[in-house]
C-alpha cells in the first residue's frame, strides 16, 4: 500500500483527513497510534517528532506529510479523487483556506481545550474554553445561510474540517435553536457518506471519549 495514515479513529483532526481520503476514494492503510503505550509512543515519535496525529506516509513519493490542511492539499495534488475538493478559482481557494482555519482554530481548539480541562477535573476552565464556541457558531450561522456547503455547491476541505469540529463541539456546547442554518448544515454533514463512515468507524471507541454520556444516542 502506497499511503499509510497514522491515526486514531476517535481523534477529531484524524477524522478531518479520513473524510478527505474517503471523498478521494484513494486506497490507504490506516495504522492505529496508541499514545498511551510507551513503546508505541516512542515508535510514533520517530515518525512525527511532535507526537501529533495524523501523519500521512507516502512510500511511492518517499514523503511524510504533517498537518491536516497540508495533508488534504497534498492528496488533492497527487491523489485527486473523482470530485475536486478545492475550488478552481484562486480567490475561492483563499476563502476555503480561511474557513478551514476557522474550523480548526476557533471550533476544534476551544473544543479540545474544554475536553482536556474536563479530563483534568477543572470544570471552570472547561466552561471558559467552551465559552469561545458561540462566537464561532454565530459566524458559521451567518456563512451557511442559503448555502449547502461552506463554498456553496462544492464540498471542499473546509467541510472536511467542519464535520469533526462541529460533531465534537456540539457535545461541549450545543448549537441552540437560534442557529437553524448551522444545525441544518451539521445534519447535511453527518449524512454525507464519507462523514457517516468516519463516525461509524469511531463508534467502537466512543467509550473512551470523556464526554460519552453527552453523545446523542443516534451516534452510539
Outline the structure in words.
- The chain is α+β, with helices and mostly antiparallel strands.
- It has a domain of 107 residues: Up-down Bundle (Glutathione S-transferase Yfyf (Class Pi), Chain A, domain 2), CATH 1.20.1050.
- Helix content is 55%, strand content 8%.
- The chain contains nine helices and four strands; from the N terminus they run βαβαββααααααα.
- The chain has a four-stranded mixed beta sheet with strand order 2-1-3-4, with helices on one face.
- β1, α1 and β2 form a beta-alpha-beta unit.
- The longest helix is centred in the middle third of the chain and has 30 residues.
Return the string of H and E elements.
EHEHEEHHHHHHH
Enumerate the strands of the largest sheet in spatial order, edge to edge or round the barrel. Answer: 2-1-3-4
**Mean pLDDT reading:** 95
CATH architecture of the domain at 90-196: Up-down Bundle
Residue ranges: pLDDT <50 for 5 or more in a row? none
Shape: globular
